[in-house]
Design goal:
single chain; 709 residues; alpha+beta; Alpha-Beta Plaits; Immunoglobulin-like; Aminopeptidase; 8-stranded mixed sheet; 7-stranded mixed sheet; 14 helices; globular; binds zinc ion; signal; TAT_signal; protease; Peptidase M14 domain-containing protein
């Protein structure tokens, strides 16, 4: 059976409102299909979006820039809620999308779905394509008068179409109307990204097709006429590739899974591979799928009582001495694909150990913790009772709240919590983003925090969600004045970006799915604020005292829009419940590739003993007039500590700072006739340039004497 769903607009929307009359009065029961649906809306501002969320509207992860400084979001609502949205000032309803019916959903579950054959799997994977040239990671380009900074100008080809994505900061702010022209004459549109009343930068609502052979874009400010031309840079260096010869993949080929099926599989994997794998039982039991408030349509064999959440630990050496990686999924119950990413990755690792050199060396070098389903009770409810269930199933706070019963586990953490005044969660229930009465009130969140506390060797983490196609890191929350959590250093942000190139290139290799550059970055720079999310808790080590990374924590969203050459549009790929055989399987495969990517990043970190090197754009042989702006190039993402007074640089010396969000390095301005500039670079691992010892003064820092005539 096929249930490929499409967004309905226009006439279909009129039909949807006619349905309101018949569906709305019916009481929900175990036998009724859920009456909620996905609704695509456009709003004037993120303030309104936040207001709607505070009023109880369930907003999915699929939020993005709309035309002319608007925002578009996919929300979950029932027919009555849809009517309210239609009459709300500042909300435009763009279309609706029904979830699968109960029968359609059941047909996609393991045990009901037809397993894919090897031939089917091969047919779903496209033939290898030519890889992009690697990007040069150019620094931002600034107009001569400083009004405009081209933060990013990225290009890539997907589905046979070359795309462009631009981000430009104007010192004239949100009201500056930018005109953008490619060197082919094509004109492009940008609009201001304004969030919480703060102007961030101008961007496009979506990547757009490039015509001809464009190599650069010229941006002109409507405010003061200043102009800047920036070359287009390649985004992601990969193309579609085959797996290595003999590599085994395609394990999660028979449908979406509940936690009984998940547990059975990881127990078997551990039993079959005792030398390299073991099951770790997390200490805090869930309240249970059968807690009051449930409709309970799961098979009778599915347990109603509390569950022990299980992790699979993989590594040749599991004594805490190896670099640890935590890969976890399905905090949000309705995000069905995400546990398949986990189970596929686990099986690829164990099936290819000893035959595939990369897999074998990663199992040698790393200590990998995989939690396929953080939220088993919610998952059971989302599979068997209500497709839209997001939270856990704890009835303690708002019994009788239906789908919204429970706590949003990705808002229940300590750092940047709503209870401390951060934005993007609800302090009251019922709400789809209810943060709980206090941080770590829930067993499921306690389990994640426990795992990291017990295993301080964990330095990398990946939290996987669906859908929207974002790839993000900290800071993930800000307060009502839009002050974010402490920003990572410039070098840390560069490290996140450089690692993202590895991870996202791996995703792309499966079937050419390209995560957009505009959706890659700190959560608060590309999307919104998510108070108390787990990624921030891991990154800041449970306490946002400073910006030192404790765990390099990413957040993935599977389920990206795909470019449709026929209609020349980005099309949706099945929301939370893509049809398993032609889309859900593919999403699991490509993001399992991405999980391999983060393991490669972690392995490179574990084995990194190479000191960074750096080079300033000035030297003592040069002759300079007027003030001199110093910038450094480094061999890898590295922090520059420097002095300009002739003293030896130490850990207390100033460091090169970032020029605003998504910006490059802020130059150091020299104005004196003669400056003794001394510095050293340090990478994320702590390797120091030239073996210099800033503490004890051993070794020599880098040094240039700059004379200005
Ligand atoms: Zn989610």
């Amino acid at each position: 059976m096929t249930h490929r769903r499409r967004w309905c607009a226009g006439i279909a929307l009129a039909l949807a409102s006619a349905l309101t009359i018949t569906l709305a009065p019916q009481p929900a029961s175990a036998e009724d299909p859920p009456v909620e649906q996905l609704v695509r809306i456009r709003v004037d501002s993120t303030d309104l979006l936040r207001e709607l969320e505070q009023g109880g509207l369930d907003i999915t992860h699929d939020v993005g820039q709309g035309p002319g400084a608007t925002f578009e979001a996919t929300v979950v609502t029932d027919p009555a809620g849809l009517e309210r949205l239609r009459t709300e000032d500042g909300v435009e309803v763009l279309g609706t999308l029904d979830g699968p019916t109960r029968e359609e959903a059941r047909a996609q579950l393991k045990g009901n779905a037809e397993p894919l054959t090897g031939r089917q799997k091969d047919a779903l994977k496209p033939a290898p394509s030519r890889a992009n040239k690697p990007g040069r990671g150019r620094p931002p380009v600034v107009s001569p008068d400083g009004t405009l900074t081209v933060l990013r100008a990225d290009t890539w080809t997907t589905g046979g179409q070359r795309m462009v994505s631009l981000e430009v900061r104007s010192e004239a702010g949100r009201d500056d109307r930018l005109s953008v022209t490619a060197d082919t004459g094509q004109s492009l549109t940008m609009s201001a990204f304004v969030d919480q009343g703060t102007y961030l930068y101008h961007r496009q609502s979506q990547p757009v097709p490039l015509t001809g052979d464009a190599g650069s874009v010229t941006v002109r400010s409507g405010a003061d006429g200043s102009e800047v031309t920036a070359p287009l840079d390649s985004w992601l260096s990969s193309g579609v590739t085959d797996f290595p010869d003999g590599f085994r993949w395609g394990f999660t080929d028979d449908g979406y899974v509940d936690s009984e099926q998940t547990d059975a599989l990881i127990e078997k994997l551990a039993a079959d591979n005792p030398d390299v794998a073991e099951v770790v039982e997390l200490p805090n039991e869930t309240v249970g799928y059968g807690a009051p408030g449930g409709a309970l349509a799961a098979p009778a064999s599915y347990p109603r009582e509390g569950k022990t959440v299980k992790a699979l630990r993989i590594g040749r050496v599991r004594d805490g001495s190896k670099t640890g990686v935590l890969l976890y999924a399905q905090e949000h119950a309705r995000e069905w694909v995400t546990s398949l990413v986990a189970l596929e990755t686990a099986q690829r690792l164990l099936a290819n150990d000893g035959t595939d050199p990369l897999t074998t060396s990663m199992i040698d070098d790393l200590d990998i913790f995989i939690v396929p389903q953080v939220n088993p009770d919610g998952v059971a409810y989302a599979l068997y009772d209500d497709l839209y269930q997001r939270s856990n199933r704890n009835p303690a706070y708002c019994p009788g709240a239906g789908t919204n019963l429970g706590v949003d586990l990705n808002r229940n953490f300590r750092v940047g919590s709503v209870h401390e005044g951060f934005v993007g969660a609800s302090a009251r229930c019922p709400s789809s983003t209810y943060a709980g009465p206090e941080p770590l009130s829930e067993s499921e969140s306690k389990n994640t925090a426990w795992l990291v506390e017990q295993h301080p060797n964990i330095k990398f983490a990946m939290n996987t969600h669906s859908f929207g196609g974002y790839f993000m890191w900290s800071p993930g929350a800000y307060d009502a004045q839009r002050n974010p959590l402490p920003r990572p250093s410039l070098a840390t942000e560069q490290y996140f970006f450089a690692s993202s190139e590895t991870i996202l290139s791996r995703v792309r290799e499966y079937r050419d799915t390209v995560v957009w550059p505009g959706r890659t970055g700190p959560i608060s720079d590309v999307l919104y604020s998510a108070a108390g999310n787990s990624g921030d808790d891991l990154f800041y080590g449970g306490d946002a005292e400073d910006n030192t990374p404790h765990v390099y924590a990413w957040n993935f969203e599977v389920g990206l829009p795909r470019w449709d050459a026929a209609s020349q549009r980005w099309v949706d790929t099945g929301a939370f419940w893509p049809e398993f055989a032609d889309e859900g399987f593919g999403q699991a495969m490509e993001f399992a590739n991405g999980w391999y990517g983060i393991l490669e990043v972690a392995q490179a970190y574990a084995n990194d003993t190479t000191d960074p090197t750096s080079k300033a754009n000035v030297d003592g042989r040069g002759s300079y007039s007027g003030p001199v702006d110093v910038l450094w190039e480094t061999s890898e993402p590295a922090t520059i500590y420097y002095t300009t007074d002739g003293s030896r640089p130490t850990w207390d010396s100033p460091t090169v700072q970032q020029d605003g969000i998504r910006g490059g390095a802020l130059p150091i301005r020299l104005t004196k006739d003669r400056t003794v500039l001394q510095w050293f670079a340090v990478d994320q691992k702590g390797n120091v340039e030239g073996n210099y010892d800033p503490d004890r003064g051993r070794g020599a820092p880098q040094r240039e004497v700059i004379k200005i005539r």
